[in-house]
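Q: For a teaching session next week I want to show students how multiple molecules come together into a single three-dimensional assembly. I've collected the sequence lines for a complex. Could you give me the predicted structure tokens for the whole thing so I can convert them for display?
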Amino acid sequence: DGGITQSPKYLFRKEGQNVTLSCEQNLNHDAMYWYRQDPGQGLRLIYYSQIVNDFQKGDIAEGYSVSREKKESFPLTVTSAQKNPTAFYLCATQTGPNGYTFGSGTRLTVV
Amino acid sequence: DQQVKQNSPSLSVQEGRISILNCDYTNSMFDYFLWYKKYPAEGPTFLISISSIKDKNEDGRFTVFLNKSAKHLSLHIVPSQPGDSAVYFCAASKRGNNRLAFGKGNQVVVIP
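A: Of course. Below is the structure for the complete assembly, covering every listed component.
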């Protein structure tokens, strides 16, 4: 059963902590993306990776970091430098020339 | 700068009637357009797409119309069903660039 698995579904972070959101795919897709959704803001691109061991900043990369050591995995770390991390985070892969498949998302809340 | 714009953030429609969602774009290099549907606490799912060489694409109850000269596209859902209640995102891409530019989304509520 191919797809994208994001974990955890819900995550709570204390002020000043770093947290890592997991994104795993078994679709054998090269390109992977991280988006953030806020109410009224739509989907904003954080980071993306076209191939293993390579990644680029998106539109709102400040306070985030990523790695792409394996094709299947593209974890996102939300660092303490991210001032407003409470949001819904979505991971996606490039399905074809012009489409994405999304994971089910992780809701991050700062407490 | 928002390259894909969706105004009228929310729409309420009676079941069985038509829902029309609008999307405008500013980048004339965009040549492929997609609509995604998203339920709360879930990832968006692909709904329908259209290439710039066409002006209409239809898939069951969903039709997308593209007006290149106006840089405008619309999604028609007819007849609307309660299960269509969701947020709909318009997205666009240009040849040779894998990144999709998304609009802010439209909330659709279908009233039974």
